[in-house]
Structure formats: structure tokens, C-alpha cells
Specification:
14 helices, about 400 residues, mainly alpha
């Protein structure tokens, strides 16, 4: 008799906040439990540090991108694409030999640095050209060249500290570079700060590469090889970015992003070849192998997917949606094949099995990226490129 509310006798309505609050609380609990489970499964302090960096960067990235003006979405894609060229750092750490690479791992790493450099130098120039489209004749003169001052402070101060015996300062140099990259993305939020954002991106990526070069302490011959890989990529990237028509810049962003995916695949291959001998004795080998497998998968999807997005935007391939019959089944089968190959890569200790399973991951991931993007219409290709 007491289950009615009000004189009308209607049943009391259910609490409208209970269900959404329960969902949020459950998701939060599951996320926190997953973090603890990762720590139990892999107590390596290096992994925990990387997980902390990854989690914080995810939150920061979401926050800085959320408020970007719609008119600046293409320049934002370009500058984030250029920042992602920091895959060059992984390649630099794996390069070996002298003027020429000493083995297969070194050759793959050098190729990764070359590909990343095309993307870095070309990407920032594309961003600058995109922003110039918004420039009016009556706008005041800009003085972005003054950002050479903080560049000199970061890079010059870092190398001066190295000469003074402060060998561990690269961590702070990395932090400064990372903050500049975050500032680059945040700067693209408005027209007023967009050019500052691009300058900060150049400073951040340049500082990160400079810190890596100083940390490695390589021989003069190996530094010459690194400089050749970076320099060749810079010449090609800037040459392409300068020569393309303004109307072709959005699709060029997708083309350059394919270089990042290929660089990731090459870096993972170099890491596998270089570190396989240590997997049997390294307590954190599982973590390294998982990173190689995931990097190969993500890089493969990005490589071919970005190439297809470029073709659709450029008109060199049809802009219509093209897919095999039962496309979802095909995509699911390729994804399952990747998972199966990852399982073999993680479990089988033999070099041959791991090598072929890694190649299978690369091949299936590239097929998946191409097929998934081909199914997207030309009007949605920019969105697909952003996801990639």
C-alpha cells in the first residue's frame, strides 16, 4: 500500500541516475583492476613506467585535441602526423655499424629513420603551407624565427651539459621535447596560436632526436650514417611538400603518414632481429615481444590504410566504396589470423617460427588496412586517415 507516490496513485519512477552511475563505476573498477593485473603479470619497472607515460599521454591528447576549431582539423592532422615521426628515435637506437649498417637489423633501422625523416620534415612544412592559406595581406608580420632561441636553449644546453659530464640529462631533454609536442597539438586549437603550435612541434621533435643522438654516444662513422639517413629523408620530404599544389596537401598528409606506419614495421623487425638472442634469458622478453607484435600490426594497418586513403583523396583510385563479399567476415578472419600469428610469436621459442609469424602479422595487417580503407567512400577518407 506504501508503493505509490502522490495522490494520483502512480508508481514511483525508477531512479534515473542509478544505471548510468553503476555503468561508470563498474567501468572505473574494471580499468583499475586491469592496471593491477598488468603489474602482477609483468612487474618490470620499465613497463610500468611506459604504462604511466601511455596513460597520461592518452588523457592529455584527448584534452588538447577536443577543443580544436573545425577549420584547423587538416593542419592538426598534419602536425600530429609530423610528431608521430618520432618513430625515428627507435630506429636511431637500433642503428649499428659504421658508415654502412653492420647487419640486417641495422639496415632495417636505417630505413626506418629514413622513412620517419621524410614524414617529419615534410609534415611540418605541409602544416606551415596549410596555415599560410589562412593568412591575410593585412595580418601583422610574424616572428616565428625567434623560436630558434628556445631551440638553442634546449639543444645547446643539453649538449653543453653532456660535455660537462651530465650524461643522464637526456631524460629532462625528452620531457622538454614531449611538452613542446603537447604544446604543438594544443596550439592548433585556434588560428591565433596555430603557427606557434607548429613551431613548438618542430622544437619538440628536433629536441627529441637531438637528445637521442647525444645519449647514444656512437662512433663518428655511425653518426655519419645517422646523419645521412636523416638528411636524405629531410631532402625528399621537404622537396615533395614544396612541390605539391595547395589543393593536394590534405592527401599528401595521408601519404606521409604511410611512411610512419612503414617505419614502425621496419623498427619492429630490427628490434626482433637484434634482440632475439636475448629473449631466452631476458625476464621481460614477453613484454618486448608483445610490443614488437603490436607495433608490427598497427604499423602494417597504418601503412596500407594510409596509402589507400591517399589514393582516394588524390583520385588515383576510385572514391567509391569497394569491398570483397562478406567484408566483415573477411576482416574478422584477417584479424583472427593476426591474433593467431601473435600467439605463435609469443609462445614458440624458435627463430624460424617467430620470424615467419612476424611476417604473417605484417602481411595480414597490411591486407586488413587496405581492405578496410577501400570499403570507405571518398567523402569519408579524411576521417579514415585521421583514425589511422
Amino acid at each position: 500500500a506504501d508503493t505509490f507516490d502522490g495522490p494520483s496513485g502512480d508508481a514511483a519512477p525508477a531512479d534515473p541516475l542509478f544505471a548510468p552511475t553503476l555503468r561508470t563505476a563498474s567501468l572505473t573498477a574494471a580499468s583499475l583492476a586491469a592496471l593491477l593485473a598488468i603489474n602482477v603479470a609483468a612487474p618490470d619497472p620499465a613497463l610500468l613506467q611506459m604504462m604511466t607515460t601511455f596513460a597520461l599521454s592518452t588523457v592529455v591528447g584527448y584534452q588538447v585535441v577536443w577543443g580544436v576549431a573545425h577549420a584547423l582539423h587538416s593542419p592538426l592532422m598534419s602536425v600530429t602526423n609530423a610528431v608521430s615521426g618520432l618513430t625515428a628515435v627507435g630506429g636511431l637506437c637500433l642503428m649499428n655499424g659504421g658508415v654502412l649498417p653492420a647487419d640486417t637489423a641495422g639496415a632495417l633501422a636505417a630505413a626506418a629513420v629514413f622513412m620517419s625523416s621524410i614524414n617529419v620534415f615534410g609534415g611540418f612544412l605541409i602544416t606551415q603551407r596549410m596555415l599560410d592559406m589562412f593568412k591575410r595581406p593585412t595580418d601583422p608580420r610574424e616572428h616565428t624565427y625567434l623560436y630558434a632561441v628556445p631551440a638553442a636553449a634546449l639543444v645547446g644546453g643539453y649538449y653543453a651539459a653532456l660535455a660537462g659530464g651530465y650524461g643522464n640529462l637526456y631524460q629532462m631533454a625528452y620531457l622538454g621535447s614531449a611538452l613542446c609536442c603537447v604544446g604543438a597539438i594544443g596550439g592548433l586549437a585556434t588560428q591565433r596560436t596555430a603557427r606557434t603550435g607548429n613551431a613548438l612541434g618542430v622544437l619538440g621533435v628536433g629536441g627529441g632526436i637531438a637528445a637521442t643522438l647525444g645519449m647514444l654516444g656512437a662512433s663518428p662513422a655511425l653518426y655519419a650514417q645517422m646523419g645521412a639517413a636523416i638528411g636524405a629523408g629531410a631532402l625528399i620530404g621537404t622537396g615533395i611538400a614544396r612541390s605539391m599544389a595547395v589543393t593536394s596537401l590534405p592527401q599528401l598528409v595521408a601519404a606521409f603518414h604511410s611512411f610512419v606506419g612503414l617505419a614502425a614495421v621496419l623498427t619492429c623487425g630490427a628490434q626482433f632481429v637484434a634482440e632475439y638472442a636475448h629473449f631466452a634469458t631476458d625476464a621481460s622478453a614477453g613484454v618486448h615481444k608483445l610490443a614488437i607484435a603490436l607495433g608490427s600490426f598497427i604499423g602494417g594497418v597504418t601503412f596500407t590504410g594510409s596509402l589507400v586513403a591517399y589514393g582516394k583523396l588524390d583520385g588515383s583510385i576510385t572514391s567509391a566504396s569497394v569491398a570483397l563479399p562478406a567484408k566483415n567476415v573477411v576482416n574478422a578472419a584477417m584479424a583472427a589470423g593476426c591474433l593467431g600469428a601473435m600467439g605463435v610469436f609469443m609462445v614458440d621459442p624458435s627463430y624460424t617460427a617467430e620470424l615467419y609469424s612476424l611476417l604473417a602479422i605484417n602481411g595480414l595487417a597490411m591486407a586488413l588496412g587496405a581492405h578496410t580503407t577501400m570499403a570507405i567512400g571518398g567523402a569519408d577518407a579524411p576521417v579514415g586517415g585521421t583514425v589511422l
